[in-house]
Write a structure and sequence with these properties.
The complex is a heterodimer of chains A (about 425) and B (about 260). Chain A is mainly β. Chain A is built from 3 helices and 21 strands. Chain B has about 260 residues and is mainly beta. Chain B has a single domain, classed as Lipoprotein localisation LolA/LolB/LppX (outer membrane lipoprotein receptor (LolB), chain A). Chain B is about 15% helix and about 45% strand. In chain B, strands 6-5-4-3-2-1-13-12-11-10-9-8-7 form a 13-stranded antiparallel β-sheet. Classes of the chains: A mainly beta (about 425), B mainly beta (about 260). Chains A and B meet through strand 13 and strand 14 of A and strand 6 of B.
Chain lengths: ~425, ~260
């Protein structure tokens, strides 16, 4: 792996030195998280280096983002990831991008129902922003511009799933998986991934424009869910249940928009998915899963006051069509996210609070008060805490044992 | 007696002609706004933030601008500090209605439309606001020529600009020292919404580049916060032939 990495870097460096000046950037950060309970046990002790290599010419460019991280709590050796490594080429009204890349669709903030393209690494779903959680994929992308219009096309030849923690000692393992692993009567098989065939490739198309202070786009996607569906197979004689995770294919259409209304920023997304899969408690159901179409949406409003005070509110929801009793989720699910921050001393100090109520029924929530101080240009110190609450078996409430203090220092270069 | 009357009459006529020739504040500011700044321009801006303790921080951006008559467009790409490198800011200015503004944040890979109210805010944490650096709609203000005065060895008009009722602006008034020879502001005093003296701009190193008078160094001092910012322009080029569709999302997202 290291040899391969070194070869890629060497090749990229040679190519970039041929096409233009190479710009090196990135950051080095040290992250610590310490639980309030369990004798202040550490749940993160990470050193993280990101290297960005950029070389841009008039109509072409080469880009590489590489992460090298080491957390002795979870890895015996440093982990190396090539997040992105791609080439750009502009030909008239076309922009082509080819290589390992990350594309995030949707005009809303962290929750994007129309973001179908790249999978995520859920092992760090709390402490990383969404872009950093994304897993780079190898695919070509083509953008066509005419006037204020843009058409974007993506073809993903090979499926790559999201990563979820499967180790029961991992602090962010979901209770559903932890329960399966802990139950000796349940056998969890390896997920069945789609074979590398043309019919299993993924396609995405998007059309966007701006008109009279209103930006909007429509999109279409056909491909696989990045998380597997946990199908149940009962083996009665042995009194054992086998769970067979499978990646299922779906089609989706979406719309997003952004505008400014009386200094209030408004943006939103809507996505219709033709097949969603839900766990059912109906014992007559043979595989424990029902298939239903759904509509997901998000509406964001934000406002910036003159004195550097920023407020943000998001309403996130999902409606399941043709709902039936036994489905382990609400017909209409509502989540709320809010955040605010204020800068002080010419943006040297930032104080903020982020929060999320995941489900009104379970009243589970997460709060993150934080402080960020810019020691000097490019050097930051950040501290704060993650506070979870709610029912023990709820999306966020399950992590209340992980309430923790975090400390982060970063140097950007 | 008739001779005396004739002399007095001549003096009055000459004096009234002189008064008539004295330009009004509005005319002076029209000349400032309409002076040749080229069809388009590109430059690198370095801003040094200086605290009263002497501690310094540096911000650097690359700026492209194009004059579309009443609708100027500009694109900025942040070069320093490293944590904001690649951030893009696109502005389509409109006369008589709110500007369109978009921010591209490479850390989130997203383009975000932002309120034109952002113009009143500090530009990258400096003592300049986006409004200070952008162009102005002449019709939004009432102008008064206060006097003529020599500043930095230059003969200047001193013009007061007060926003018209109903126009939302960051300042209650500004007083500008305009060089009479080239109609360029070399000093501006800004007064906050309560009418208190807030900050002072001092322009120096004025050079003719590609036939256009250009301020290469501006110092903005916020007297209330005891903080100042020195803005230096480098690699200034005019009339480079930027295409119409340069100022679109396509270029905004190019890190």
């Amino acid at each position: 792996m290291c040899n391969l990495f070194m070869r890629i870097i060497t090749i990229l460096t040679i190519i970039t030195s041929q096409v233009g000046a190479v710009e090196l950037g990135g950051f080095l950060s040290e992250n610590l998280s310490m639980k309030f309970q369990d004798e202040q046990e550490f749940i993160k002790k990470e050193t993280w280096l990101r290297l960005k290599l950029r070389s841009r010419m008039e109509s072409s460019g080469l880009f590489t983002d590489i992460d090298l991280s080491y957390d002795p709590l979870y890895h015996s050796i440093p982990e190396l990831k090539i997040r992105e490594a791609y080439a750009d080429l502009s030909l008239g009204q076309f922009d082509l991008r080819f290589g390992r890349q990350i594309v995030i669709w949707g005009k809303a903030d962290e929750f994007n129902p129309t973001d179908f393209i790249n999978p995520e690494d859920y092992r760090e779903f709390i402490s990383l922003n969404k872009t950093d959680r994304k897993i780079g994929l190898f695919y070509p992308k083509i953008d066509y511009y005419f006037g204020n219009y843009k058409v974007e096309g993506i073809f993903i030849p090979f499926f790559t799933p999201s990563e979820i923690p499967m180790d029961s000692s991992h602090p962010w393992i979901p209770y559903q998986i932890k329960d399966i692993i802990a139950d000796p009567k349940i056998i969890l098989t390896e997920p069945e991934e789609p074979k590398h065939k043309l019919k299993n490739s993924e396609y995405a198309l998007k059309f966007g424009t701006t008109m009279e202070g209103f930006d909007f786009s429509f999109c279409y996607f056909e491909g696989f869910f990045d998380l597997p569906v946990m199908f149940r197979e009962a083996i009665i004689l042995l009194d054992t249940i086998v769970i067979s995770p499978k990646y299922k294919r779906f089609r989706a259409g979406g719309f997003d928009f952004t505008t400014i209304l009386k200094d209030l920023g408004l943006r939103g997304e809507l996505a219709y998915v033709d097949k969603g899969y839900y766990i059912t408690t109906d014992l007559l159901d043979t595989d424990g899963i029902v298939e239903k179409a759904n509509l997901s949406f998000v509406l964001v409003a934000d406002y910036k006051f003159l004195e550097d005070l920023y407020l943000n509110f998001q309403w996130i929801g999902r409606y399941i069509f043709d709902y039936e009793d036994g489905i382990d989720e609400d017909e209409l699910e509502n989540r709320f996210v809010f955040s605010c921050h204020k800068y002080f001393f010419y943006e040297e100090l930032k104080l903020g609070l982020s929060g999320m109520v995941y489900n009104l029924r379970d009243q589970d929530y997460m709060l993150q008060p934080y402080l960020e101080y810019s020691v000097t240009d490019g050097v930051f110190f950040e501290t704060g805490c993650y506070l979870f609450g709610g029912k023990e078996k709820s999306i966020l409430g399950q992590f209340s044992k992980n309430n923790c203090l975090f400390l982060k220092t970063s140097y950007y270069f | 007696m008739k001779k005396i009357k004739f002399v007095v009459l001549c003096i009055l006529v000459v004096f009234s002609i002189l008064i008539a020739k004295e330009e009004t504040g509005r005319e002076i500011m029209e000349k400032v706004e309409n002076r040749n700044t080229g069809d388009d321009q590109v430059a690198e801006m370095t801003m040094t933030l200086i605290k009263s303790s002497g501690r310094k921080r540096v911000r650097k951006v690359e700026v492209w601008q194009k004059d579309y008559g009443e609708n100027d467009k500009s694109l900025m790409r942040f070069l320093e500090p490293a944590d904001v490198r690649g951030t893009g800011f696109l502005i389509w200015e409109h006369k008589g209605k709110d500007d369109d503004q978009w921010l591209y944040l490479p850390a989130f890979k997203k383009v975000r439309r932002i309120s034109s109210k952002e113009k009143e805010k500090s530009f990258m944490g400096t003592d300049f606001s986006y409004e200070d650096l952008g162009s102005h709609n002449l019709d939004d203000y009432n102008y008064t020529l206060l006097k003529s005065e020599t500043f930095d060895d230059q003969d200047c008009y001193v013009v007061e600009s007060v926003p018209k009722p109903g126009k939302k602006k960051s300042y209650k008034k500004t007083i500008s020292w305009i060089r009479k020879d080239i109609f360029l502001a070399i000093k501006i005093d800004f007064y906050d919404k309560k009418g208190k003296f807030l900050k002072r701009l001092h322009a120096t190193n004025i050079e003719k580049i590609d036939g256009i008078w250009t301020v290469k160094v501006m110092e903005m001092e916020n007297v209330q916060r005891k903080h100042r910012t020195i803005l230096e322009l480098e690699n200034v080029r005019y009339n480079i032939g930027l295409k119409k569709h340069f100022f679109t999302e396509r270029n905004l997202i190019k890190e």
